[in-house]
Design a protein that fits this description.
Blueprint (H helix, E strand, L loop, with lengths): L5 H11 L6 H11 L3 E4 L7 H6 L4 E4 L3 H13 L6 E2 L12 E6 L10 H13 L1 E12 L14 E8 L2 E12 L4 E12 L2 E13 L3 H10 L2 E8 L12 E8 L1
Parallel strand pairs: 1-2, 1-4, 2-3, 4-5
Antiparallel strand pairs: 5-11, 6-7, 7-8, 8-9, 10-11
Bound molecules: S-adenosylmethionine.
S-adenosylmethionine (SAM) binds next to β1.
Length: about 250
């Protein structure tokens, strides 16, 4: 099963829709840049829908048909009709340009092939208006980048829905030479204490060091590169978990 497709799209909201820590951060820059914005990997609309509701001009790019369908269903309930292009960022082919392009929840790290990641940055550059800004959230496995994960299952969260209990567990492996972490998500659904369904999906994430991503942004033509920590407006430091890179079209 593909990540973010089929049933996973449904489970996404069950486990991740509540995340709020980054909402104000992107909203602040979208307003500051004063123009249309594009969310890359807009998913089920966790950010897109509240931004549209508050009157921001935001569209999305999302390759998963199921994620888009869930986003549209939620939006229709409050009479919103988001524009979401069903495409991969690295192949993006659209007519509009934007003042802000933002990539929340480490979506840039989901692009595993290095040539695709470079293509993706070139596409962002192309679809930004002059002086437009990109925001890219990333994280690094500071706790254990040496690859000594023990690969055991750890329960991450448990949710109750329609009389059944779903347990999400995670197991992680890390290829340090390739800079790729593979996180296996295991979903187990129980009804009346009986296991009804169980499946495992791998999620690959490529890691970027600070200077590596800065160099890639420079090579793609960006200027004014800054790195913020943890969705605050402070510069990132060694204590930051999430690094949010911002850069402008030259
Ligand atoms: C972690 S989810 C984030 C969803 C949403 N932005 C949020 O914050 O809740 C990552 C999303 O990025 C999408 N995605 C993965 N690779 C992508 C790519 N190459 N181009 C655009 N979107 C991609 C996935 O399908 C998924 O919906």
């Amino acid at each position: 099963m593909e990540l973010y497709s089929g049933k996973i799209a449904f489970f996404y909201d069950l486990f991740f829709e509540h995340i709020k820590e980054d909402e104000y951060f992107y909203e602040y820059f979208i307003k500051l840049n004063d123009g249309p914005a594009l969310e890359i990997g807009s998913g089920t609309g966790r950010l897109l829908i509240p931004y549209l509701r508050s009157g921001l001009r935001v569209s999305g790019v999302e390759p998963s048909a199921q994620m888009i369908e869930i986003c549209n269903q939620k939006a229709e309930k409050i009479n919103l009709h988001p524009t979401v292009y069903q495409q991969f960022l690295q192949d993006l082919d659209i007519q509009e340009q934007y003042k802000t392009i933002y990539m929340p929840l480490f979506v840039f790290q989901n692009i595993i092939k290095r040539e695709d990641a470079i293509k993706a940055l070139n596409k962002v550059y192309k679809y930004l208006l002059p002086e437009g800004q990109v925001l890219i959230s990333t994280y690094f496995p500071w706790n254990d980048p040496t690859g000594t994960y023990d690969q055991t299952w750890r329960i991450n969260a448990i949710r109750e829905i329609e009389g059944s209990t779903t347990v999400l567990s995670e197991s992680i492996s890390f290829d340090k030479f390739e800079q790729i972490q593979t996180k296996y998500f295991k979903f187990e659904s129980f009804k009346n204490n009986k296991l009804e369904e169980s499946f495992i999906v791998p999620a690959h994430l490529r890691f970027y060091s600070r200077f590596e991503l800065e160099g890639m942004l420079e090579s793609a033509g960006f200027k004014d590169i800054q790195v913020y920590g943890d969705y605050t407006f402070y510069e990132a430091s060694s204590n930051s978990n999430a690094l949010i890179f911002t850069a402008k079209k030259a």
